[in-house]
Each structure stands twice: as C-alpha cells, then as structure tokens.
Design goal:
Layout (H helix, E strand, L loop, with lengths): L13 E2 L15 E6 L5 E6 L3 E6 L5 E6 L6 E5 L3 E5 L5 E6 L28 E5 L2 E6 L2 E6 L5 E4 L5 E5 L3 E6 L5 E6 L6 E6 L6 E5 L3 E6 L4 E6 L5 E5 L5 E6 L4 E5 L4 E5 L6 E3 L9 E5 L4 E5 L5 E3 L7 E6 L5 E6 L3 E6 L4 E7 L4 E7 L2 E6 L4 E5 L2 E7 L7 E4 L5 E5 L3 E6 L5 E5 L3 E6 L7 E6 L3 E6 L5 E6 L6 E8 L3 E7 L5 E7 L5 E9 L5 E6 L2 E5 L6 E4 L2 E4 L15
Antiparallel strand pairs: 1-5, 2-3, 3-4, 4-5, 6-7, 7-8, 9-10, 10-11, 12-13, 13-14, 14-15, 16-17, 17-18, 18-19, 20-21, 21-22, 22-23, 24-25, 25-26, 26-27, 28-29, 29-30, 30-31, 32-33, 33-34, 34-35, 36-37, 37-38, 38-39, 40-41, 41-42, 42-43, 44-45, 45-46, 46-47, 47-48, 48-49, 49-50, 50-51
Length: 568
C-alpha cells in the first residue's frame, strides 16, 4: 500500500486549501454526488454547499479540494484528465483540469463506447422506457410493465432478464415472457437508490437510502442483505460490480466491497462529544462519542479501540470505573456499559425517563431524567429512587459506596443522602463539573471551575478551599475520570482545538500534562508522544508516525513528504 500518494496540483477553479500529507478534511454537508474515476484509482465527491473533494481510492487521502459557486448535481470524469461538474440541466458548468497523466484516470484501451458503432444481433431483446412504462421487445413480442416513478431499466448481459427500479420498488422481469420473477418493496421510511448488474448477470446488487445493500440472485430468486450503518445515503456510484462508492447525509464517503460484502474504506467521523481520560496510568486517553458508536483514543499504548454500534441513539454518557469502560444512556430507555477493549455492550439498568445527566464511581451509578427523577444504583443493590421532581442539574457526582449523590446547579451543590434522605447545600460559582474524592466515607468534593481553577468542597462544614489551577491559556474544561492513588484525570480543550489530558494530585495539587491530542483537520487526530514525535490516527486508516516532521507508516515505514503541522 502506498503510504502517501502524489497530490493533485489544481490548475483551475478555486482551491480551498492545499491538502497536506495525511490530513483529510471531509465534507461538512450532505454529499450530492460521488463518482469513481474510470480505472477506480480516484473518487470525486461534492456536497450541497459546493465543496468538491478528490480522494485516493487506496487510502482515502484528500488530493484536491475546490469550491464551486453553483449547485452541482452530478460529476463526470472525461478524457484529457478532466472532471466535469454538471448542473441541473446536465451542462458542464465547471471543468477542472487535473495535473495528472490520462493513464492515471483511464486504463490503456479504456474509452467511452460509441453507440453508433454497436451492432446488435437480430432478435436480441431491447428495452424502451417512457414515463412509468417499461416495454421489453423480444423479436415480434412486446411485454409491457408499468411502475410508478420508474427511474431505470437495464437488460442483464446474458439477456435473460430486465431489472427495473423506482423509489418504492425493484423488479426483475423475464425478457421472453410477461412473467415477473421478483419484486422487492422498499421498507417503510426507505427508498431504492440504484442497482448494478454483474458482468456475467449472475447477481444484482441494489442499494437502499438507509444504507442497506441487497445481494440478489435472479436465478435462484434469493436475496441477502447487509446493513452498513453508515447514515442515510444521499449519493452513490453503482456503475462497477466490484466496488460501490457511497456518500451520506453526514458528509462521509465510503467504499463498499461487493465480494466481501463490507465497507473497505470510509472517511472517519469526528466525535461529537468527549468523555475524560481513562483511570489506567498505562493507557491514558479519551473516548470520542458519536450518536451511534464510540471510539477510544489512547496515548502510551498507541491504540484506538472502537466499540460495537450502540443499540439506540446516545442521549447521555460518562466515564466508567474501568480502564476501558464508559456508560451510555440511549434513547431506548436503557443504560449500557461498553468495554472498549473487547467491544462488549451490556445493559446495566433502565431509566424511568430520558436521561439528561449521569455519573459513575466504582460500582455506583446515578442518573437524572428530564422529569427530575434522581436515581442511584450499584452492582450490589437494586435501583433506588433518591429524589423526585428536582430541578435538572448541570452535572452529577456519586460516591463509591452509593451513599451520596451531588447535583451541580449555577450557584450551589446539593448533596442528597440516599439512605437517610438528607440534603446539604454548598455555595459555589462558575463551576462546570464535580466529583467525589474516592474515600470509604466521602468527606470532600472536587470542584472544577470554568477558569480552570480546582477547589475542594468539604462535606463537614460546606466550605471550599483552593487546590490548584490548570495552566492552559484560554482552555475549556470538558470532563473528568478518576485516577488511582488519590488523583483525578481532567480532559480539556485548548484554544487551538487540541484535547489535553492532565493528572491532578488531590493531596499536593500538582498538575501534570499526560497526553495531548491534536486536531489536524476534520478526520485525523494526533497524539503528542514527545516534543518531536506525533502519532497520527483516525478510526479507519493505518497508524502513521511523524518524527522530525517526516511521516512514516507502521505498515511499511515508507518515508514521505514533510508535514505542515506543529505540536502547539
């Protein structure tokens, strides 16, 4: 595999930015059109905002990025190393000339078929489409098939059957009789995008816009499906029966391998939320959450641990007690524990309503739903309702023995006693997060301020005292996780958008930076391992090491061009 392919040098149109080595910018809007180059070496994609990207198929690196000042409906590769951007009327409103040899786009001998020179055998079946009517002509016979919203009809290469598709139906009909071999209705809420027939006519691959792929055997009349879980498809390229290019409503581009029946390449999706560092000293990192899955980015071990898809959409989350664990409340009303080192997901509780805040410590877990019901439970005891109809808290904290639950509000912390039904009020200001100190009998709460000051709140007399200040200029606190030996991890975001994990000693107040994750574009994340070494990785492509601002791959250590990024 080539580590870093040669970059295109755009010679016309407006360039958004130079595509630096291994930096993938992705789309920020739904993809409108996606198109393979004729030799499958490149993929072109454009979104509804007019952003045009050219990718290397082998690595999904971005080779060129352009901005179109019109609504592009379709892309078309042409001779002369040209990419035509077509408008609604089918006219090429912009043609981009690429600084590559034509052989890199068209294989030798490959060319566009001249329809005027095609000689058809007498009596071969033909198809005519007019509106919603498909007419199959076979010798002197004509067979009519009506389909509402008919989009396309194709005769398979061996001329045994015709495939027809509309948004709601896909049919396979015989060429020599009026018989209908197979009819597939689109499921409720989904519609057919397109289909491709194999070169030998032995199978048909069809795509639904909910990213489900149908593999159809027209002879045995059997179907098998593959759910890709890649978002709602908004664009596709099904002209080849080996690979299918997909673009979805989240701006991602993916390539589906027909033979393996799986996604072989996919642009990474930037996490939408973050849960703080792991409590394991040898695997410091953070978890990036999406609405449908999670990914852990680790530092010292150079790992990325993806989870299985979540059973339902994510509504709230928190770091778990284990070294590779987090908790997720989903829209199905359940709370799940996810082990990222194994990918296992299991339900650990059910919520009384939609969860708005949750926390965990040791074997204890607590959550508050949107109706103000505050609940706490542990592995050794069943769920207990602590309070009802309370004001919705910004953050929650629970003690390891499940005896206390703390709710953070704008100007105070309210601590609820689980067994004795007591309440304690501690005045605070500008507080963004709280956590109980890990003690057998809880006596203190760690208080994180929005100016990165850290304080200790005493449960004995309801007073607060300063502990330390995290020295990250213009930083913002994200979340925390417990660390061993009287310490706590904090996850912060710097002014440059970098994620920084710090370790805070609760005895001395000493703060040390243990990991820095750089945002090097929308797709790639980098972890600073030393002042001169970066680890570049997303959740799809290979690990790449940058040492002395040269890029290497763990796969073959191929040296490549210099990177235009820094550590700060």
């Amino acid at each position: 595999m080539v580590d870093l392919p040669q970059r295109f040098v755009p010679t016309s149109s407006k360039l958004i930015r130079h595509a630096s080595a291994v930096l993938q910018c992705g789309h920020d809007a739904p993809v409108v059109s996606v198109k393979f180059s004729p030799n499958l070496a490149y993929i072109a994609s454009v979104d509804e905002r007019g952003k045009l990207l050219i990718w290397a198929f082998e690595t999904l690196d971005v080779l060129g990025a352009y901005h179109l000042d019109f609504a592009c409906d379709r892309l078309q590769w042409r001779r002369g190393a040209q990419l035509a951007c077509l408008g609604a009327g089918g006219e090429a409103l912009r043609t981009i000339v690429l600084d590559v040899d034509e052989g890199e786009l068209f294989a030798e001998g490959m060319g566009e078929i001249d329809a005027s020179r095609v000689i058809r055998f007498i009596g071969s079946p033909e198809v005519e489409v007019s509106g919603d009517l498909c007419v199959v002509k076979y010798g002197d016979d004509e067979f009519e098939h009506e389909m509402a919203g008919l989009r396309r009809a194709v005769i398979e290469p061996c001329e045994r059957y015709v495939v027809m598709v509309s948004a709601s139906q896909l049919r396979i009909v015989a060429t020599n009789e009026a018989a209908e071999r197979l009819r597939l209705e689109a499921p409720v809420g989904a519609s057919w995008c397109d289909f491709v027939v194999s070169k030998r006519g032995d199978f048909v691959v069809a795509l639904l816009d909910d990213s489900t792929v149908y593999h159809i055997d027209p002879v045995k009349l059997t179907t098998k499906t593959v759910a890709l879980r890649s978002g709602r498809v908004t664009a596709c390229d099904l002209e080849n029966d080996d690979f299918i290019a997909l673009g979805n409503d989240m701006g991602n581009v993916a390539v589906y391998d027909v033979a393996r029946r799986s996604i072989c390449l996919q642009t990474a999706r930037k996490p939408i939320d973050f849960v703080a560092a792991y409590p394991s000293p040898d695997k410091v990192g953070f978890i990036g959450l999406r609405t449908e899955s999670a990914t852990a980015f680790l530092g010292a071990s150079n790992e990325i641990l993806p989870s299985d898809p979540l059973p339902a959409a994510l509504v709230a989350s928190c770091a778990g007690a284990g070294a590779s664990e987090f908790l997720a409340a989903c829209s199905d009303g359940r709370i799940y524990q996810i082990q990222l080192d194994s990918g296992n997901i299991r339900a650990v509780g059910e919520a009384t309503g939609e969860v708005v805040a949750m926390c965990a410590a040791g074997e204890s877990r607590a959550y508050c739903d949107k109706d103000g019901n505050l609940s706490v439970f542990s592995n050794s005891s069943r769920q207990t309702i602590v309070a009802k109809s309370i004001p919705l808290p910004k953050k929650l904290a629970v003690s390891e023995n499940a005896a206390l639950v703390a709710c953070l509000y704008d100007e105070e912390i309210v601590v609820y006693g689980v067994k004795k039904s007591t309440q304690q009020h501690i005045c605070v200001d500008r507080t963004v997060d709280i956590a109980f100190v890990r003690e057998k009998t809880p006596q203190n709460i760690v208080v994180f301020k929005d100016d990165l000051a850290v304080e200790m709140a005493s449960l004995k007399d309801s007073t607060t005292s300063p502990l330390c200040r995290i020295d990250i200029p213009h930083g913002a606190f994200i979340s925390h996780a417990h660390a061993p030996k009287s310490a706590i991890f904090g996850l912060l975001e710097s002014e440059e958008g970098h994620k920084v994990v710090v370790k805070i000693s609760l005895k001395t107040g000493q703060v040390s930076e243990v990991l820095r994750i750089l945002a090097c574009g929308r797709q790639i994340w980098a972890a600073a391992l030393s002042p001169e070494t970066l680890l570049l990785r997303n959740d799809i492509s290979m690990v790449k090491i940058v040492s002395g601002f040269k890029a290497y791959s763990f796969d073959d250590w191929t040296r490549s061009e210099p990177l235009e990024i820094g550590l700060c």
